[in-house]
Amino acid sequence: MASDFFYPNTGGVEEHIYNLSQCLIKRGHKVIVVTHCYGDRVGVRYLTRGLKVYYLPIRVFYSQCALPTMICNIAIVRYILIRECIEIVHGHSAFSVLAHEVSIIGKLMGLKTVFTDHSLFGFADMSAVLTNKYLQMCLCECDHCICVSHTGKENTVLRAKVKAHKVSVIPNAVDAYTFTPDPSQRDPNVVTIVIVSRLVYRKGVDLMAAVIADMCPRYPNVRFIIGGDGPKMWLLQEVREQKGFQHCITLLGSLQHSEVRDVLVKGDIFLNTSLTEAYCMAIVEAASCGLKVVSTKVGGIPEVLPENMIYLTEPNVTSIVAGIELAMKDLKDNNILCPYKCNQMVRKMYNWMDIARRTEIVYNRILLNKNKPLGQQLKTYLSCGVWPFLLVISLMYLLLKLAEKVYKRKHIDIARDLKL
Asked: Which GO terms label this protein's molecular function in UniProt (predicted)?
């Protein structure tokens, strides 16, 4: 598993890599994780079930991503791939430079490569154009891609020009045994609306603030509990202070993932105002805790939960407020599913062992693919239309050959497998 995003950083990608790795180990496979260093966390660390993590001494360039040099990390990545007897390189996240670098190096070494895309991306602005072209170049030789929703698959096929038959849809999952309901934690005298999200623009914080400003004066018995931090935190603080909503808005700030369940069980309704989302893990965690979910109907969200567990709204204030009011009416009329039944339904729909089994099918399929010589690989890279990228791939290949001369494969110790 290769990605810039892993623990101690927290988020959907990090959780996906960790849980998928744990389940693959449980199914008898050897899994290692390659990521960049986090502060003084450099070198090798072991996590649950003996999951080995290599924190490479690579400087972070921007937003937890390494600088895309393509050539500077060839020697250390090659050493790890040989030492650990790796057969498949699985990169995660389109924004992760390290995932793409390790995948390309693995491909030049004759390994199989898989890539999981966790995000939706646009086509209009300059950052989207550059990211999409970079993704297209990096996925030219990828054996198979995985997306977390059918909307995500469409998006990846269009922006990275990957053939549709080489893309599978395997969703995220949640640990429903951790996110269990506890109705005794709810306050029966008020309606508590919980929001747990990174407070950034694409999570719809502007909508969130407008909804709170609209509802609090009209519904004195409504309380908002907001967990999460980010550059848009000031907007919610401003609404609370200027409107005098200190009594009905609680800002918890940054939360550890282990603390999220304790916040969710205090709520009656979970609100998600995302403007774009490939797959929203937060709404599944909330549904697993038995909350009524109100969410914007964007990206892959309509695919995630059945109609009786979610109120879908348009991404505007009027529609979101109407969705919350409908959920409040159903709560008042007791027209709701039993929280424990919701948890059972989520257990059946989203299970990490099932996700691991489906990922295993992809692995077994690509192991049958024949390796291409360098000439054919360069011809494939040429199809992306960026001629200078062929020089980069050729230089990476020559540096791999040089590394073979300096650090011969036969002199690299094979790591012992740690079985716990």
From this structure: phosphatidylinositol N-acetylglucosaminyltransferase activity
C-alpha dihedral over 369, 375, 380, 386, to 10 degrees? 150
Across the chain, mean pLDDT equals 89
| Residue-by-residue DSSP string for 234-248 | HHHHHHHHHHT-TTT
Record the pTM.
Answer: 0.86
Residue 222, token pair as written in the block: 């409504």
CB 175 within 8 A of CB 188: no
Beta carbons within 8 Å of 317's beta carbon, 6+ residues apart = 207, 210, 211, 214
- The H-or-E segment that residue 22 falls in is helix 12-26
Phi, psi of 69 (to 5 degrees): -85, -30
Q: Name residue 93's amino acid.
A: S
**pLDDT tens for residues 96-153?**
889 999 999 999 999 999 999 988 877 777 877 888 888 888 888 899 999 988 988 9
Inter-residue contact 300 to 277 (CB < 8 Å)? yes
Beta bridge partners of residue 192, listed in sequence order: 223
> Residue for token digits 């550890």?
256
| pLDDT at position 63 over 70 | no
Query: What is the DSSP secondary-structure string of 267-287?
Result: -SEEEE--S--S--HHHHHHH
Distance of alpha carbon 23 from alpha carbon 294, whole angstroms: 31
Model confidence over 186-196: pLDDT tens digits?
A: 888 899 999 99
With beta carbons less than 8 A apart as the criterion, state whether 86 and 110 touch: no
Please name the residues in contact with 208: beta carbons below 8 A apart, sequence gap of 6 or more: 195, 226, 236, 271, 273
In whole angstroms, what is the distance from residue 78 CA to residue 407 CA? 10
- Neighbour-count burial for 146-158, b at 16+ CB within 10 Å, e otherwise: bbbbebbbebbbe
| pLDDT tops 80 at residue 296 | yes
What six digits make up the tokens of 93?
């996240």
What sign for the dihedral angle of Cα 138, 160, 4, 368? negative
